[in-house]
Write a structure and sequence with these properties.
mainly alpha, two-stranded antiparallel sheet
């Protein structure tokens, strides 16, 4: 899609240039050109998306130059997570266009179509990146989601529970999320480094949704699921005073990043909810089994902790609960409320 976007910004390209023959000649291969023509024009050659491509091709030279610079800046996203990041990424549309400017909405619709229609139906590439006409080999939304889930299964058994890579909870209603929102960065609609299958709760509007994952175009204080992952950087801690789980950083260097991730996903609030729910489950179990003395409760909690599996959702929160309850003072208090 970057190749198409840059080609449309070429000052020598106009609406009359947008033909199947020119796409075959300029899109890397005939396979890619034919696929792109079908995406734009459909079988009849009158699809509305074709008019959007022609509209971009007919932009004035100054607008094309500004859009081209924006495309190149967004395409260099990975550099922002390297040792010498460039200047802040422009988070607004190029050329001073407003978010509702017809030129911007046209370009955005054209780019997002690669996700809404292209990825859904299958991009013209095999998993190894080579162009292909074989529909069964093409990378699609379903294929990407399936491959990601298979690669991140902690228990390979098909009946085992799956875990969300963002929150550690159960992977319920998984959906492919755009880490940087496609509304602001449509060029990244089908960029592999910007697609992340998550649970429905993480992807909801009250959690990540379309929120920014940068600070005014600067990524220094943010994790990225592929380019700067948070593995090992987060340490949940039970806060007696707040009666909840506090999200802490394992190292001072990541403190702001962890804080931003917590705010983005409401991790502390969600983990506290799970902590309390599991506490209540253990309390009901102790009541049902009539375990009320401290020694018996301690033995049961030690068994509970030993039986925890990292291949199960909320493993870290349940381990934190076991650690908290095995504290002598808390254990004594727990025993007093379980008869």
């Amino acid at each position: 899609m970057q190749r198409l976007a840059l080609w449309l910004c070429d000052h020598q390209v106009s609406s009359v240039s947008v033909t199947q023959a020119n796409l075959r000649a300029n899109m890397g291969s005939a396979i890619e050109g034919d696929w792109l023509w079908h995406l734009l024009a459909g079988t009849s050659g009158t699809k509305a998306l074709l008019d959007k491509a022609k509209r971009i091709a007919d932009l004035p030279p100054a607008d094309k130059t500004g859009l081209q610079q924006w495309i190149q800046a967004v395409n260099a996203l990975a550099q922002h997570f390297g040792p010498t990041p460039p200047a802040a990424l422009t988070v607004n549309p190029p050329n001073g266009w407003g978010s509702r400017d017809e030129r911007w909405t046209t370009f955005k619709a054209l780019m997002v179509a690669f996700y809404e229609e292209g990825l859904r139906g299958g991009l013209p590439y095999a998993p190894n990146g080579g162009p292909t006409t074989d529909a069964a080999l093409r990378v699609s939304y379903d294929q990407f989601l399936q491959a990601f889930r298979a690669a991140h299964r902690l228990d390979p058994h098909p009946d085992a529970r799956e875990i969300c890579v963002l929150c550690g909870g159960p992977l319920v209603l998984p959906a492919v999320d755009h880490w940087l929102a496609k509304t602001a960065f449509p060029l990244l609609s089908v960029c592999a480094d910007n697609l992340l299958p998550t649970c429905g709760e993480c992807n909801s509007t009250q959690n990540k949704g379309q929120k920014d994952v940068h600070t005014g175009g600067t990524f220094t204080d943010w994790f990225h699921p592929y380019l700067r992952h948070a593995n090992g950087a987060i340490r949940p801690h039970y806060d007696d005073a707040a009666l909840g789980v506090r999200v802490e950083s394992a190292t001072p260097a990541d403190a702001v990043k962890v804080q931003n991730l917590d705010r983005l996903l409401n991790l502390g609030q969600r983990w506290t909810r799970e902590f309390k729910a599991e506490y209540r489950r253990l309390q009901r179990e102790a009541q049902r089994r009539q375990i009320s003395n401290v020694q018996a409760l301690q033995q049961r909690l030690m068994e509970y902790r030993q039986d925890l599996s990292a291949a199960e959702p909320h493993h870290e929160i349940h381990a934190l609960l076991a650690e908290a309850l095995l504290d002598p003072a808390r254990l004594q208090a727990f025993a007093q409320i379980t008869p």
